[in-house]
Structure formats: structure tokens, C-alpha cells
Amino acid sequence: MNDRTRVRLTVNGHAEQVEVEPRAILADVLRDNLGLTGTHLACEHGVCGACTVLIDGEAARSCLVFAVQAEGASITTVEGIAPDGGLSPVQEAMRDCHGLQCGFCTPGIVVSMTAYLNTHPNPSDADLKEAMSGNLCRCTGYQGILAAARQAADRMNASS
Amino acid sequence: MKPSQFQHHAPERVDEVVALLAEYGDDAKVLAGGQSLIPIMALRMATYPHLVDIARVPDLSKISATPNAVRVGAMVRQSHAERDAAVATVPLLAKALPHIGHFQIRNRGTVGGSIAHADPASELPAVALALDARIEATGPGGVRFIDASEFFLSTWQTALDDGEILSAVEFPVWGAGSGFGVEEIARRKGDFALVGALAGVTLDGDRVTRACITMIGVGSTPVRCHEAEAALIAGGANADLDEIGRIAAAPLTPTHDVHASAAYRKHVSPAIVRRALTAALKEARS
């Protein structure tokens, strides 16, 4: 019953192979098996968005995906958002606009915002509010996060 | 907050899915996008010794158009349906999809999974009911079709037999002069609707030749408001929509929960119906 299954993933560009129980959720595998603790887990049932990662480029809650479902997929975690070790435009904007206080929700915010802006180059403020509605933050009151989304959208647009 | 142990099966053909369900019976559950099932398992509201993952069955991820309907395979992700040209010919479906959860959820959640899950507050069962969609069920005896009006039995209960899977849904395409509206009231964007209404009309001048009104969050299944539809068809495009809303709400017996009282749900229902119909009529006239 608790047989382990081999799962192959590409995580932040690196080929990985893990042996996990089928019930292991992707978030736990990223954190516990692969040491990528940037992905945070809070509610563990799909409400808060802290665990958001990219699966084949699309944002998803990694607490609502069994690792076995991600067999063969390419995963990007917050550690892989800025591959050169610097800050991505979204991360810079979060710093500039005080988009975080305690920081717990920040990895999910950064990944969600990155995914949204990658596919929506000209968002309105209302679009950004809607796009960020799936990530809970208990500190900021969201205004800094939305200001960061605005700045990141405008800068990514200007540089493209 | 961790699901209990299970064996994961990943068949690549529909007949293999059906064979696995036959082999494991009540011990097996179909896993599609998992956006409802995995929370239920994480909360230990349910445990299943076997999950049959249908994501690797290519035949279940197809969308195809026929002259009068759009067939959406069970495993089509909601976000993919949102971007699909054929789905755009079923405007009620296209309008309802963005109301589901958040974009991160819709990237994983599936059209078939949501309908098979049959949550009375969710949008896609209501779309199926409103449009008289046909549910394609595949089981040991082959394929059969179930009318949406006979599919939703109660909360999380459907007319699928043991051993059957929902393999696709056929959504009828309405003709020219049609308009649709989806209205919901929820405390936060992306939450389950406290009350919602999905409406469609077809106009011939000021005559309403076709109407559908379905409500969510007000019973153990989505609720089709036949009397209100008849009143709208009788009253025409200039009917008193407040009155149509009252007719729709009159027979409802919503329940109380932590999110809203039964009285509140009943109280806002006529207004939600009016808003959905207003949007539908506006679109039909344009």
C-alpha cells in the first residue's frame, strides 16, 4: 500500500528523480525531498495560495497536486523565478512597493504574479486585483502587493 | 492535512479506466484535476484505497464541435476551455468558467471533474443543467447519455452508475439572437457563490422564444427555475424582471451554513436572477 513510486521531474531546469508515496503532494516533495523550501505550505487544501508553483509554465497550487500527477512535468518554484541569482522584475517590484511584511505568502505571490504577467502584458488595475485574489496575505492589506503588480507589469511592458 | 495512503493507477485508454473501476469497485475513485478531490482527501473527509488518474488518457482531453453542440472531454482543463474557440460558441459555458475558483485552480481543474463532483454551489453543473446538456457516461456496457436534468441527484451525488465514468459533456449551441448572463454573490472573488444565477434567452424581436434560468447555492443540486422561464417566455423581453426573480425564488428552500443564512440566500435570490436576466437580454439585443 505504501509502495513508493518513481517520479521524474524537471525542477528549475534540473532533471530530478524521487521515490515517493503516491499520496505525497508536490509541495512536500519539493520541500522535503528536493530541499526547495522556498515553496511554503499553509492551508494545505487549496485556499491560501502560498504553495503556488509553475507546472509546465502554468501556475498551480502544489498542495493540490500529487507528485505522481506531475510525472514528466517541468516545475518552476520561487527559487527558479530569477535564474541568474538576482531579482526578477516581480521580485524587485515587491521590494520597492513593500509588497511583503512577514514574507510567508510571498513565494506564492511572486509565482502567481509572474505567471499572470507572462500571459497578460497589459493588465488593468482591476485585472491585477482579480489575478492576485487567489493568494492570501495576512499582513499587508494587499495594497503594496497590488502596487508591486502594477510596477512589474509596467516595467515588463516597457522592456519588452 | 495529508491524504491517506492509496495506490495510483494511470491508465492510457478509457477501457482501461473502466476495467480498473470494475476491479476495485467502491475502493476506487477517479482522479481528474484533483482540485476538489485532493482537498477532500487532505481534510480526511474521504479516503480511497485506489485512485484512477485519467490525465494520461488522450481521448478524454479533446474538444470537438458538431453543428448543434460542443463536446468537451472529461479531462479538458478549465483554463484550456476558457481559451477554446469551440467553447466560445457556448457563451454560457464561456462566461461561467472564469467564476470558478482562481486562475491557478482552473489551470488544473477540469470540466468533467467539476460536473461529476456535482457540488451544488459550483458553476459547471449549473451550465449543464441550464443548457440541457447531455452527459456521456462510459462503463462496462459501453457508452450511454444522461440528460443533465436527470444527472444531479444531491450534493456530490450523480446518476453515474458504479463502474461508470463521465467521459464527456455535450453542450448545446443556441442560435442567433441569444444572450447569456452569469451572476453570483460571494464574500470574496473566487469563493463558492452564496447564491448564483445562470440565465439564457433567445429573442425574436420582443418575443422570448427560449429561456433558461438555473440557480446555484440554493439547494442540494443546481436548481432549474421552470416557472420563471415560462413567465419570461409569456411576458416577453420587456417583462418585469423583479417579478421573474420572485417567481424563481419562491419555491427555493436554501440551507443555512457558516457562510450565509437560509433567509439571506432566499432574500438575495430574486435580485441575482434579475441581474443575470438583465445581462442575458442585453446581450441578446446587441
TrEMBL record, chain A:
It holds the Pfam family Fer2. Residues 5-81 form the 2Fe-2S ferredoxin-type domain. InterPro entries: 2Fe-2S-bd, 2Fe-2S-bd_dom_sf, 2Fe-2S_ferredoxin-like_sf, 2Fe-2S_ferredoxin-type, 2Fe2S_fd_BS, Beta-grasp_dom_sf, Diverse_Oxidoreductases. Keywords: 2Fe-2S, Iron, Iron-sulfur, Metal-binding, Oxidoreductase. One of its GO terms (molecular function) is metal ion binding. This is Unannotated protein. It comes from freshwater metagenome.
